[in-house]
Amino acid sequence: MQPAPIAPRDRLIVALDLPSVTAAEAMIAKLGDSVNFYKIGYQLTYAGGLPLAKELAQAGKKVFMDLKMHDIGNTVARGVESVATLGATFVTVHAYPQTMKAAVEARAGSGLKILAVTVLTSYDDADLHAAGYRLGVSDLVEARAQQAQVLGVDGIVSSPEEAGALRKIVGHQMNLVTPGIRPAGSASGDQKRIMTPARAIAAGADYLVVGRPIVEAADPRATAEAIQAEIAQALG
Ligand code: C5P
Q1: Distance (Å, whole) CA 230 – CA 184
Q2: What would be the CATH architecture of the domain defined by 8-235?
Q3: Is 62 a catalytic residue?
Q4: Cα-Cα-Cα-Cα dihedral of 103, 107, 113, 115, to 10°?
Q5: Are strands 37-40 and 62-69 parallel, antiparallel or unpaired?
Q6: In angstroms, what is the span from residue 157 Cα to ligand 1's centroid?
Q7: Ligand 1, CB cutoff 6 Å, lining residues
Q8: What is the share, in percent, of the chain residues with pLDDT greater than 70?
Q9: Residues 30, 61, 68, 192: which is the catalytic one?
Q10: Which residue from 152, 149, 209 is spatially nearest to 178, judged by alpha carbons?
């Protein structure tokens, strides 16, 4: 069975990687009704962002809590239960089997979906090697995606470069969420495996996470709308 289609506008997730709730609220006001989906990560969470996450969800926006959880199973499970009370749509966990299993069990009965982070998009083969891994990026991403699927995880976060291969592994039942998106001409920053919005959609991504190209733009709303238009065009 194919999952319900996702509107092009809802496929753009704006990363609110900003230093304060005040800065985040100013960005949300600038983006207005153009953006429906926000990602809140470490920076904003630890700067008082949890009430904002709840407010956004209550206002009808979708919220992705990018907490990249990883701990003993019991601690992950209790954390996931707390995130579910925010009304968030997605939460990330690192793609380790114990962690994914605990998160999936704990989200049962809530509207929260678990996304597994396979390999961070700032990592290449040399970085993995330096961290003590034997596998290169593509092999480790594939192995972790297979484990995520078996454990009932709802979606996967990966570089758009892996989206095509991942689609073949996990089919259409799991959401593919890709950061590392750079509209043509924008700075790559610390991302090493990047793609334009159109190419990421063509590669099979369901949702695109975009931070700095939007929040650091002179006109964030126009930039977000241009990306949404590119997504719509890529979907045909
Ligand atoms: O500014 P930029 O568009 O690079 O932001 C990408 C966002 O996606 C950041 O918030 C980053 O933490 C997040 N992310 C990532 N790679 C992953 C998972 C999340 O870049 N594998």
Answers
A1: 11
A2: Alpha-Beta Barrel (3.20)
A3: no
A4: 0
A5: parallel
A6: 10
A7: 15, 17, 41, 66, 117, 120-121, 157, 179-180, 189, 191, 209-213
A8: 98
A9: 68
A10: 209
Give the separation between CA 13 and CA 139, rounded to whole angstroms. 27
Cα 234 versus chain centre, distance: 20
Among 66, 26, 60, smallest CA distance to 46 is for 66
pLDDT tens digits, 75-99: 999 999 999 999 999 999 999 999 9
Report residue 70 as tokens: 């990883």
CA 149 to CA 173: how far, in whole Å? 9
What pLDDT, on a 0 to 100 scale, did the predictor assign at position 159? 86
The DSSP code for 46 is: I
To test the ligand 1 pocket, which listed residue (16, 17, 141, 177) has its Cβ within 8 A of the most ligand atoms? Answer: 17
- In 131-235 the beta strands, taken as DSSP E runs, fall at 155-157, 175-178, 207-210
Quote the pLDDT of residue 194: 81
Local structure of residue 66 (DSSP, 8 states): E
Domain ranges of the chain: 8-235
Quick one: pLDDT at residue 103? 98
Taking alpha carbons only, the member of 183, 169, 181, 187 closest to residue 207 is 181
Do 59 and 51 meet the contact criterion of CB atoms below 8 Å apart? Answer: no
Closest CA to 166 of 106, 115, 232: 115
Chain mean pLDDT for the chain: 94
Q: 213 CA distance to ligand 1 centroid (A)?
A: 11
Per DSSP, the three-state class of 214 is helix
Q: What is the pLDDT of residue 3?
A: 67
